[in-house]
Amino acid sequence: MTSSFNVHDATGYEQIMGRWSRRLAPPFIDFAGLAAGERILEVGCGTGSLTLALASNPTLGKIVAIDYSPVFVEATARRNTDPRIEVQQADACALPFQGGSFDRALALLVLHFVPEAEKAIAEMRRVVRPGGVVAAAVWDHLGGMPGMRMMVDTVAALSEAGRRLRARYCFQPMMQPGEMKKAFVAQGLSDVAETQLMIRMDYRDFDDYWTPIAAGEGPLGAYMAALEASERERTEAAVRDAYEAGRPDGPRSFANVAWACRGIVS
């Protein structure tokens, strides 16, 4: 499996997305559900936002967290102090576990970066016991992330390359209304439910927003890293202008929506 998410440094990822994953983890867990003694598989653990939120429930039996990126595996393992948590490198589309090994399989902000997202859903279903739960959440890049759209719409106004970035970014897998639900049903899950989860992304100032992007983190950072120096400067100035919106630099808050889906293994 390949991933369309690029990561260079766990600290940079924390600033661009990990801190927001921590905010999204509790409502996602509420939606996915948990029960005492369960074995949980987390697919795509990143820097451990969902992993550690799960571990705050003292009744769980076992938490296995996997990620394709060794950077993320190392970061989550380093943060972990809970003996119930096991972290390992693995492919979401070829999970190294026997069928029916887990009570639930969860994926937070992962499937939209998996080119073969339906195969990953099928693998999650395979490793969960009958009656168990598969649940996932992905950002709504097109209609639910105004802070990120602020950048992609700005670069789309500047160049053809920016327009191509926007087309890719807004239509990644599983992001359209009903798309993930349809994929869950197609993979044989039953009682499939879809909902929206909302958090806010709060930035201290433009640098708090821009630093990890300028450092090359995530898909927006990859776009910036590919630009010539003069074009990077032009783009940063334009995005700064959009962030400030005619007011002095300072705190800004953006509402952000994720699609969440849950299904039962028959």
Task: Give the SSE map.
Elements: H1 10-32, E1 39-43, H2 49-55, E2 62-67, H3 70-79, E3 85-89, E4 102-108, H4 117-126, E5 128-139, H5 146-158, H6 160-170, H7 179-186, E6 189-203, H8 206-214, H9 218-225, H10 229-244, E7 252-265
Parallel strand pairs: 1-2, 1-4, 2-3, 4-5
Antiparallel strand pairs: 5-7, 6-7
Helix pairs in contact: 1-2, 1-8, 5-6, 5-10
Describe the structure.
Pfam families: Methyltransf_11. InterPro entries: Methyltransf_11, SAM-dependent_MTases_sf. It comes from Mycoplana dimorpha. Keywords: Methyltransferase, Transferase. The chain is built from ten helices and seven strands. It has 266 residues and is an alpha/beta fold. The chain has one domain: Vaccinia Virus protein VP39 (Rossmann fold), CATH 3.40.50.150. A seven-stranded mixed beta sheet has the order 3-2-1-4-5-7-6. Strand 2, helix 3 and strand 3 form a beta-alpha-beta unit. Helix 5 runs antiparallel to helix 6. It is globular. 43% of the residues are buried.
What's this entry about, in short?
The protein has 266 residues and is α/β, with parallel strands linked by helices.
Compute the number of structural domains.
Answer: 1
Q: Quickly give the structural class.
A: alpha/beta
Say what the CATH topology is: Rossmann fold
Q: Please tell me what the overall shape is.
A: globular
Per CATH, the superfamily is: Vaccinia Virus protein VP39
Average pLDDT number: 94
Q: Spans with pLDDT under 50 lasting ≥5 residues? A: 1-6
Q: Biggest β-sheet, characterized?
A: 7 strands, mixed
DSSP strand content: 15-25%
CATH class: Alpha Beta
CA-CA gap between termini? 26 Å
In helices, the fraction of residues equals 40-55%
The CATH architecture comes to: 3-Layer(aba) Sandwich
- The radius of gyration over CA amounts to 19 Å
Query: Which strand order do you get reading across the main beta sheet?
Result: 3-2-1-4-5-7-6
**How would you spell out the order of helices and strands?**
HEHEHEEHEHHHEHHHE
The number of distinct helices, counting runs of at least 4 residues, comes to 10
What's the count of strands?
A: 7
